[in-house]
Amino acid sequence: MAEHPSGYAAIFLVGGKARRFAGCAKSELVVGGATILERMLAATESAVARVVVGARPAEAAPLPEGVLQVLEDPPGSGPARSVTAGLLQVPDGCDQVAVLGGDLPFLSGEALRLLHRRMSAAAPGTGAVYCDDAGRRQWLCGLWPAKPLRQNAESIEPGAPARHLFTGIEVETVNWDRPSPPPWFDCDTPQDLEQARHWAAD
């Protein structure tokens, strides 16, 4: 079995309003000396395509060479439409797509490999998604088969929740039992950011 996801693309959703951070883009918050987006891009260096979806601040650092940026259509139409926009930039040869919120500071290559292993061990056409400690599926921290994801994206309406993209796709739920911080941990609040910075410092 491949040790790394083969032919996978990564889509990062960075277009949220971040009202709890006074409008500051969560993907540009600094954790452990780098922005969250920089940390996530480093974790996905093995991807054959990386697509950042959503507006970024004018002062944000340029994206690395080869990383694309697009806007959802129409702007502000939600995470599902953002994924749809990102999929348009994913090469046809990619058979797996990581769908990722833009505020996951502890996403790692190891975490993606674990998703890939669980996905590969399941029936064809199955996705793999992390669950948090309360057993909730973290839809924006998962790896999905590209073909059914594209098919679902064709009928997504503006404002639809992200989970509508995964309708009809069998899902393997994955728990993180390593000593490192969980890859599904997102910085939704200032308290979350404080926790992330504490973990990164340790």
TrEMBL record:
One of its GO terms (biological process) is Mo-molybdopterin cofactor biosynthetic process. The keyword Secreted does not apply. One of its GO terms (molecular function) is nucleotidyltransferase activity. The keyword Metal-binding applies. Pfam families: NTP_transf_3 (PF12804). It comes from Glycomyces paridis. Keywords: Cytoplasm, GTP-binding, Magnesium, Metal-binding, Molybdenum cofactor biosynthesis, Nucleotide-binding, Nucleotidyltransferase, Transferase. Residues 10-154 form the MobA-like NTP transferase domain. It comes from the Bacteria. Coiled coil: none annotated. SUPFAM superfamilies: Nucleotide-diphospho-sugar transferases. InterPro entries: MobA-like_NTP_Trfase (IPR025877), Molybde_CF_guanTrfase (IPR013482), Nucleotide-diphossugar_trans (IPR029044). This is Molybdenum cofactor guanylyltransferase.
